[in-house]
């Protein structure tokens, strides 16, 4: 008695290219490097925000305003935002490539992913660098302690 097993469905793959940039290799390397940098950035963020101060109860508008009035913390938080968003998007791109079987579906999902990452990075960067903790015309009792009285 002979039994035959049907051939499994072939996973998505592109024809191998002999020249050009190997984007999968660079994406893999980016994931490793950004993961290491993100560990440092995130633990630094958590230590400064939660351990060194008064804990979670001290985090309010004035705390964020005080941090973001320093260019060091603006760059720190912006770097953390950019690396985390691109790291997560690259991981999602890998999942889309692995599980989306139709070329059109893959294209739509990757386009939506690219669009959402660009929008979130742009908005996050604008918030970090244009944040004004001392808005003009605000009542003095609502301003942070480091703001000059109007």
UniProtKB/TrEMBL annotation:
Subcellular location as annotated: Membrane
Protein name listed in UniProt: Succinate dehydrogenase subunit D
Secretion signal, residue range per the UniProt entry: none
InterPro entries: SQR/QFR_C/D, SuccDH_FuR_B_TM-su
Organism for this UniProt entry: Agreia pratensis
Key words of the record: Heme, Iron, Membrane, Metal-binding, Transmembrane, Transmembrane helix
Domain of life, source organism: Bacteria
Sequence intervals crossing the membrane: 29-52, 72-90, 111-131
Molecular function, one GO term: metal ion binding
Gene Ontology, cellular component aspect: membrane
A Pfam family reported for this protein in Swiss-Prot or TrEMBL: Sdh_cyt
SUPFAM superfamilies: Fumarate reductase respiratory complex transmembrane subunits (SSF81343)
